[in-house]
Amino acid sequence: MENEIPKYRKKKNNSSKSEKKSDHKHEYKDCLVLGKVNWGNQHYIPTLREYCVLCGKLGRKWEPPSIKIGNAYQYLDADDAVKKYSYLQVFYIDYLDDCVNLDEVKE
Ligand SMILES: [Zn+2]
User: How far is the CA of 86 from the centre of ligand 1 (A)?
Assistant: First the structure.
């Protein structure tokens, strides 16, 4: 009987370079999101949101921008919202997207 001894032991290589830890604690910052919709004609719906400055993910905050007129609130359209919240970062996304493109962030 022959004892077969493998010449080469296969080295186990479990270290994959591409596996980076992407987990982080999201750091949210307020922003104004203009969500593109195609209802009849294309337009944008403004929403006050928060986005993660590290990965662009949108947080749970979801508020339609409005102004109080008398006892009632009137929702702002995209143009008025951009004017009123000019101090916020503005992102244009598809309405159902849940993250923003961080390339759009102005310094
Ligand atoms: Zn994040």
Answer: 24
Instruction: Tell me how far apart the alpha carbons of residues 23 and 80 are, in angstroms, rounded to a whole number.
Output: 37
Q: β-strand 66-69 against 72-75: which pairing, if any? A: antiparallel
| Confidence (pLDDT) at 76 | 96
- Bridge partner residues of 30 (DSSP): 50
Distance 7 CA to ligand 1 centre (A): 48
Q: How far is the CA of 22 from the centre of ligand 1 (A)?
A: 9
DSSP 8-state secondary structure symbol assigned to residue 58: B
The model's confidence at residue 17, banded by pLDDT at 50, 70 and 90, is very low
The CA distance from 21 to 98, in Å, is 21
Distance of CA 79 from the midpoint of ligand 1 (Å): 28
* Distance from the alpha carbon of residue 69 to the mean position of ligand 1, in angstroms: 37
> At residue 38, does pLDDT exceed 70?
yes
Cβ partners under 8 Å of residue 75, min gap 6: 64, 65, 66
